[in-house]
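Reading a protein record of the kind used here takes only a little practice. Think of the row as the fold of the chain written in a discrete alphabet. A record is reproduced here so that you can trace the correspondence yourselves:
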Amino acid sequence: ASLILQWAEEGHLTMADIGEDGFLLTRGAPLDDGHRGYEHTLYDALFALGDETAGTVTHEQLKEKFYPSVADAQKAVAGEFTGEHRLEDRSAGRWSTLLALLAALFLSVGPLLGCLKRDPAFSLFGILPLVAGLLALWFSAQLYNSWHKMERHRRRLWSGLLGLFYLAFAGIQVFLMTSEGELSPAIAVGYTLVGVLCLALHPFIRRRSVYGRRLMEELLGLRLYLTQTDESSLFAMAREHPGYFYRLLPYAMVLGLEETLGRRFEGILTEPPIWYQGQNWNTMSAIWMVHYMNR
């Protein structure tokens, strides 16, 4: 949806409100060489689902059919971040992988002992820490990737929940290793602490590359601008550049700030963009349109 709005603002398509059927997109000027290859592929796939002769496509024609093209474009975007444009530092990634392997090694002691006992019930119960450990690795990575987007109270909440999970996880692991005297409590606690420590540190040892840090700084700067700039500055920019809101909107969508941006521009803009045809337009109409396209 963000690319559709960007293309519209650049004159590559127009959009019309057609009532209950959603919206109608009409092909405009073709994309030039300044656009990435995946944009050309996505743009052509967009109109291939509609009337290619008329160069139009409706929301209903795109619904549940355009997703494969979007998935292919996402893979192509990921392919852009290689070599000097790699987002993560390679050496930090290797250390992160090593910690993940060590966590799996140390936290598999309990399941291994369960299997050696040849007790089906105990063996099944012994597998649980290993499965839980893999889930914890995944959850820790997701928490790391979303950390900069979270408010402070959410960071504390999720960190606390993850800590409680680790504590319960460690208790089960120690129980499995000390039941019936397979290992002494001291050794069991040592194995578990090393495993949990590796598990907890695994996502946070990852480090962005120089390019990744620069890109993140730019994104955070843009986020700060979209949320903190005073309204008088926004009003001045909107008067000087009538399409300013629509140029910012695609980037706000990527950052999940489209509604915030719409509220900040509410009352500042009253005219629809030149690429839109419809009635009762305001800044929140653009936000509604975005949500409608994402369905």
User: Anything to note?
Assistant: The CA atoms of residues 53 and 140 lie 50 Å apart. The mean pLDDT is 76. Strands lie at 13-17, 23-27, 56-58, 276-277. Residues 120-146 form the longest helix (27 residues).
